[in-house]
Amino acid sequence: MGFKLGARHRHKLKIKVRFVNRRRNFDYLRSLLQALSDGELELMVDSGQITYFKGEIVRKLWVTAGVSATAAVVLAATGSAAATPSERGHSGKHGKNFVAQLLPLNAGEHTVGTTTFTIPRAGGTAAVRVKGDDVTVTIKVRGVTPLTLHPQHIHAGTVCPIASDDKNRDSFVDVIEGLPKYGPILISLDKSLNNFATSLDFPVSDSTGRYQYSAKASKSHLQAELKQALKLGKRHVVIHGINPTDPLPSTVQTLPGLPAWATLPVACGELHRVK
Predict the structure, then answer these.
(1) C-alpha angle 141/144/147, rounded to 5°?
(2) How far is CA 207 from CA 143, 201, 204, in A?
(3) Tens of pLDDT along 25-55?
């Protein structure tokens, strides 16, 4: 398999992928590559079968999907745009601060079969401070489903999805439909930012549908794991998770091994640098 990037990357890269008879996983890999691409994407699929994606977290796919080591480096290298001048160099004496206003996704009343349910209008703020080698992430969320797990991540893409991204017209913009916009996962905002192992140790909202999250990590460690510089400007923070009892239709796609309710996006916001 090979792909060609846009104007800023006028060269071709070759990626070798092992297969195991799972067509939908090829479609997912294709979505991932599209999200990583800055421009036109050309796919050339050789004979074979795609490796089953058994990792729960998108960012782990280049480890668990059977992609070669070379491909892993390629994916890491192309998962981000060029650094802006404000993001080059060291954090400086006062550090760098990035803030995102989280806006609702998939909110409102939905009817599936004979059941009508409401997805709350989620909102809040996400802040990232980089000072020296310290990275601190603080998130305050309101209006999500109470007493529910809410996976959250910093994604590598540059746009939040909108209603028209519901390509199969089932009234939900699911995690797969959102990928071409917000891109693959860059950092999982779970209990331990420094630990890149697959984890579902995400915040659980309180009885009022609110939660607060704060975690710290080493910038140098994050960059070593990502195999690229930590560029946060115009990255996107995405919050997932609705009521597990809400009867989502079978057309709502999810990640392998995870129920659709846990991966459905409910809020998204773009990180902007602030002084």
Answers:
(1) 105
(2) 11, 19, 10
(3) 444 455 444 444 433 333 333 333 222 222 3
Burial level of 160, CB count in 10 A (0-12/13-18/19+)? buried
| Domain spans in the chain, listed from the N-terminal domain onward | 2-78, 85-274
Residues 77-104 have pLDDT tens digits of 233 333 444 444 445 567 899 999 999 9
Helix-helix angle 175-182:23-36, to 10 degrees: 30
Domain 85-274 has CATH 3.80.10.10: no
